[in-house]
């Protein structure tokens, strides 16, 4: 999709309508929100983004958007709790006042056009009360799959039915209420406190239901039944308009600088030969797992491009020495970078497989380039996404057992050098084509986006 120039955009009939977006300050949330901002800009809206004073993108990368900052007061203990749910609950409280002040300032500046709506990450449920107070519609955007969201929203019900607290001996049991998930797939959230989890789920679900609409980064041919199931229950209109990242050129909302040497290295590799390995922006592994992954990759004899981002293996000093050891044996066959231009890597013809943690952006990006996966989920939505990748869409292998070099070597061979792997490649290519068709005029996502554009314009 072509992004209009500033000048053309001012000629658009919606030139006076402004949309305010508010992402969660994490890479996997920032990317889709910024992509959505680009999509709406291309449809003629002017864009304002409220971001944090930390983990924020450089406004000069997007000169056609207006940026505003808030800096909530957080103690060091709040920020380093390690408990994502406690942190999310805390943020929803301590952002209220700074966000309200910033929002009110934006509303009072009428020089940049009327405000059509506020679009926030669904995790920011606190914003609904502020939008209501100012009589502005709030739409929520979910940055996960619908299948994983439905599992997340079902946690209170699953507790009532006795699946939670999880029992080690029952982890392999299927959950008939959530087919094809098993009990171990709902082991989603690391938190010291169950009550916090249920409070958070309840708040997000309530915030969704009170919103004026829900935008999803998914597409009809991928999650048809789940889109229908969610839409049936939702009092607010539902807009599945994904995959977001395919509307615009590769996004530049990376918080770390992508290492472009990945692409020149890929140029030297044979078609479909490279396994790309990245566990996203948050997942961590321990030193033993790091060693097993390194030797598994080396022993597989397959060319590999491995993202070892700062903090991937917390507290280990001798990472460089370990990496040197792997690369000495792998030679030209291996490349390690701190951060990759992932979308371009997946789109490269040399990339034949993606060993991922199953984050939704990574999963969708892999589907959109027709690259089959090995999934090693850690937490959150990753386990349910992985269940769908392996059991429903059948476009990847779930690395379920412990992380061990022999198992890794065999799994890479299965994906990259077997008939089973070729079948997965065929299926994921067909999904890629369906995703492309959804975005073309007349396609389901295209029509949803038309609906969304009209809906936002009705103020
Ligand atoms: N990403 C990237 N370069 C890397 C690793 C990841 O650009 O080396 C991007 C990736 O394309 C995706 C996002 O970071 O858009 C990660 O989001 P995801 O939902 O997959 O995982 P999370 O980081 O939220 O766990």
From TrEMBL:
UniProt keyword terms in alphabetical order: Glycosyltransferase, Transferase
Single Gene Ontology BP annotation: salicylic acid mediated signaling pathway
InterPro entries named in the record: UDP_glucos_trans (IPR002213)
UniProt GO MF annotations: quercetin 3-O-glucosyltransferase activity; quercetin 7-O-glucosyltransferase activity
One Pfam assignment: UDPGT
Entry-linked Gene3D superfamilies: Glycogen Phosphorylase B
Protein family membership: Belongs to the UDP-glycosyltransferase family.
Protein name in UniProt: Uncharacterized protein
Organism, scientific name: Punica granatum
């Amino acid at each position: 999709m072509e992004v209009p120039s500033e000048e053309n955009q001012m000629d658009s009939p919606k030139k006076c309508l402004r949309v305010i977006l508010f992402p969660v300050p994490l890479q996997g949330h920032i990317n889709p929100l910024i992509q959505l901002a680009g999509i709406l800009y291309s449809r003629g809206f002017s864009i304002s983004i409220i971001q944090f004073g930390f983990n924020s993108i450089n406004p000069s990368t997007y000169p056609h958007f207006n940026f505003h900052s808030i800096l909530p007061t957080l103690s060091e203990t709040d920020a380093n709790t390690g408990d994502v749910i406690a942190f999310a609950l805390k943020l929803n409280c301590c952002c209220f006042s700074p966000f309200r002040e910033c929002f009110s300032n934006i509303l009072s500046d009428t020089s940049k056009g009327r405000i059509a709506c506020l679009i926030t990450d669904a995790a920011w449920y606190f914003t609904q009360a502020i939008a209501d107070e100012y009589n502005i519609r709030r739409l929520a955007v979910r940055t996960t799959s619908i299948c994983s969201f439905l599992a997340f929203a079902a946690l209170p019900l699953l507790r009532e039915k006795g699946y939670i607290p999880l029992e080690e001996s029952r982890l392999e049991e299927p959950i008939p209420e959530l087919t094809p998930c098993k009990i171990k797939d709902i082991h989603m959230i690391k938190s010291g406190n169950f009550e916090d989890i249920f409070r958070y789920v309840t708040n997000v679900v309530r915030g969704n239901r009170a919103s004026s609409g829900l935008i999803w980064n998914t597409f009809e041919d991928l999650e048809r039944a789940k889109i229908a199931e969610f839409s049936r229950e939702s009092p607010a209109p539902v807009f599945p308009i994904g995959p977001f990242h395919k509307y615009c050129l590769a996004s530049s909302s990376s918080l770390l600088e992508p290492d472009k040497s990945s692409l020149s290295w890929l140029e030297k590799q044979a078609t479909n030969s490279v396994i790309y390995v990245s566990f996203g922006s948050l997942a961590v592994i321990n030193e033993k797992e790091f060693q097993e992954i390194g030797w598994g990759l080396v022993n597989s004899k397959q060319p590999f491009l491995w993202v070892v981002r700062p903090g991937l293996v917390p507290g280990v000093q001798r990472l460089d020495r370990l990496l040197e050891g792997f690369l000495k044996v792998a030679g030209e066959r291996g490349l390690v970078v701190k951060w990759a231009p992932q979308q371009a890597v997946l789109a490269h013809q040399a990339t034949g497989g993606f060993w991922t943690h199953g984050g939704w952006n990574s999963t969708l990006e892999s589907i959109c380039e027709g690259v089959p996966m090995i999934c090693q989920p850690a937490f959150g939505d990753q386990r349910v996404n992985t269940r769908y990748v392996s059991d429903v869409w059948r476009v990847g292998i779930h690395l379920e057992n412990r992380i061990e070099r022999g198992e890794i070597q065999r799994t890479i061979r299965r994906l990259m050098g077997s008939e089973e792997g070729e079948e997965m490649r065929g299926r994921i290519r067909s999904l890629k084509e369906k995703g492309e068709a959804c975005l073309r005029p007349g396609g389901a996502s295209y029509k949803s986006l038309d609906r969304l554009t009209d809906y936002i314009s009705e103020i």
